[in-house]
């Protein structure tokens, strides 16, 4: 196993997620980019867990998975509520908190 | 060392990067979520390759089975709303976005170069590494309190999602 190669690919995936969060205006794709970043960090956890032969990393990946599921449920509920009130999915139009 | 020596890593990695690029480059949200499904499956394969069986299975069950289906339902609810995005002018400055993106890219490249000398340790894996049994023992014995806290968090999250999603009379 060449782990450093996989670390590079994980970095690339995280980078793509950040660029997606910065540039996408569709709220759903914005959300998917956040999930991409979560997955990249999960991959890093598994790689280093394998590197040291220690299972604590795998336990943390399990927790990250559960929290990601909870985050998706709450986030999508908020998104549906926002869409109901504003009728747009463009995140530039969601400026209620700025008054 | 020939290029073919790490063909599995190259294959998985290139598939991972192209499908992640597809997520942010696809025009329709449905296509983006299908690309996301592809990257999730590739990740699950990578976990299996790294001998983390339980996590690979969980990846498919939780992400592809639950989260992505939720996304699909929300996309169905929004339908063609994504096509009206081009009607509004963008609020963010393009130059600032460009600077932020190039700064992050630069940082990532520096980090990658620093990681170049990383040596695989290839420690001998303990018996049953990554299996359901050993990870379950880990979660229920060593990580018992965080595990129960996560259960409580999940309960609160599902109740909160129901409350937020409810139509106000």
Structure described in brief:
The complex is a heterodimer of chains A (99) and B (169). With 99 residues, chain A is mostly helical.
Give a verbal description of the structure.
The complex is a heterodimer of chains A (99) and B (169). Chain A contains three helices and no strands. Chain A has helices spanning 3-23, 27-52, 56-86. The mean pLDDT of chain A is 87. Chain B has two domains: 1-81, NADH-ubiquinone/plastoquinone oxidoreductase chain 6, subunit NuoJ (Four Helix Bundle (Hemerythrin (Met), subunit A)); 126-169. Helices cover 71% and strands 0% of the residues of chain B. Chain B has six helices and no strands. In chain B, helix 1 packs antiparallel against helix 2 and helix 2 packs antiparallel against helix 3 (53-78). Chain B is extended. The model of chain B has no long low-confidence stretch (mean pLDDT 85). Chains A and B meet through helix 1, helix 2 and helix 3 of A and helix 1, helix 2, helix 3, helix 4 and helix 5 of B.
How confident is the prediction overall: mean pLDDT of chain A? 87
Low-confidence stretches of chain A: none
CATH topology of chain A: Helix Hairpins
CATH architecture of the largest domain in chain B: Up-down Bundle
What's the number of helices of chain A? Answer: 3
SS-based structural class of chain B? mainly alpha
> Can you identify the CATH class of chain A?
Mainly Alpha
The dominant shape of chain B is: extended
CATH level 4 superfamily of the largest domain in chain B? NADH-ubiquinone/plastoquinone oxidoreductase chain 6, subunit NuoJ
Helix fraction bin of chain A = over 70%
According to CATH, what is the class of the largest domain in chain B? Answer: Mainly Alpha
> What's the architecture of chain A, going by CATH?
Orthogonal Bundle
Q: SSE order of chain B, as H and E?
A: HHHHHH
Radius of gyration of chain B: 21 Å
Any idea how many domains of chain A?
1
Total count of helical runs of at least 4 residues of chain B: 6
Largest sheet of chain A: none
Main sheet specs of chain B:
none
Q: Which stretches of chain B are poorly predicted, pLDDT < 50 over at least 5 residues?
A: none
Helix content of chain B: over 70%
For this structure, the quaternary state is heterodimer
């Amino acid at each position: 196993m060449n782990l450093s190669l996989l670390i590079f690919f994980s970095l690339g995936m995280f980078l793509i997620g950040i660029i997606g969060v910065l540039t996408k205006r569709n709220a759903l794709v914005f959300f998917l980019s956040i999930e991409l970043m979560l997955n990249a960090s999960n991959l890093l956890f598994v790689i280093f867990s394998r590197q040291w032969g220690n299972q604590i990393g795998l336990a943390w990946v399990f927790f990250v998975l559960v929290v990601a599921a909870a985050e998706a449920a709450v986030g999508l509920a908020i998104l549906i509520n926002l869409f109901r009130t504003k009728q747009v999915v463009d995140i530039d139009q969601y400026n209620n908190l700025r008054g | 060392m020939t290029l073919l020596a790490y063909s599995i890593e190259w294959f998985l990695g290139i598939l991972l990067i192209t499908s992640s690029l597809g997520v942010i480059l696809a025009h329709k949200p449905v296509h983006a979520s299908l690309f996301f499904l592809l990257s999730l499956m590739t990740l699950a394969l990578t976990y299996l390759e790294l001998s983390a069986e339980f996590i690979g299975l969980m990846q498919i069950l939780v992400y592809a089975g639950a989260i992505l289906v939720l996304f699909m339902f929300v996309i169905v609810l929004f339908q063609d709303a994504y096509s009206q995005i081009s009607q509004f002018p963008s609020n963010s400055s393009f130059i600032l976005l460009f600077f932020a993106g190039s700064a992050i890219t630069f940082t990532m490249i520096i980090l990658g170069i620093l990681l170049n000398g990383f040596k695989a340790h290839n420690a001998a894996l303990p018996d049953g590494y990554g299996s359901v049994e050993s990870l379950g023992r880990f979660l229920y014995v060593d990580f018992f309190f965080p595990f129960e806290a996560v259960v409580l968090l999940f309960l609160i999250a599902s109740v909160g999602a129901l409350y937020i999603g409810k139509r106000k009379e």
